[in-house]
Amino acid sequence: xxxxxxxxxxxxxxxxxxxxxxxxxxxxxxxxxxxxxxxxxxxxxxxxxxxxxxxxxxxxxxxxxxxxxxxxxxxxxxxxxxxxxxxxxxxxxxxxxxxxxxxxxxxxxxxxxxxxxxxxxxxxxxxxxxxxxxxxxxxxxxxxxxxxxxxxxxxxxxxxxxxxxxxxxxxxxxxxxxxxxxxxxxxxxxxxx
Length: 193
Prior knowledge:
This protein is an alpha/beta fold. It has helices at 17-31, 44-54, 65-70, 88-98, 109-123, 137-149, 156-159, 168-178; strands at 3-7, 35-38, 59-64, 81-85, 101-104, 132-135, 163-165. The chain has a single domain (3-178), classed as Rossmann fold (3-Layer(aba) Sandwich).
């Protein structure tokens, strides 16, 4: 099956709604036979890795020296395969180039960078077409403001690469619809994100 990247903020902690949502998403992807790929560290990355691993799935964590110098952290314990990079840019390119779809959970500047770079590479045809699904009302509100404020700079033919989902269940269902060869949907998320 496919390698699915999950991007998201490092601030989410166990018990937070976003952490629980990412854990459910990782589990749902693993139950559908997909490999979960994250940045390998804490927050949403940890939660998605945990959900996938606990469901018996394969988890790839893409880590880098730049992050570990900036913040003393190592790959989370649910990562089964670690891909080591030197720089943050190399790490990001590795995830984007390797994944067959990307799901973007709530996060900060790093997550916004991941979403924006993936989007730009898609619309410039620098990478093969793949689903890019942004999860939660925050992303939709952010990009609607962006579109309204800078309308003529972002024509409609560039906007279609972004798919918005109000929560993880909707994101998962859309992914299954958009990704060829996916198995039947998993139900049961009562997530807020």
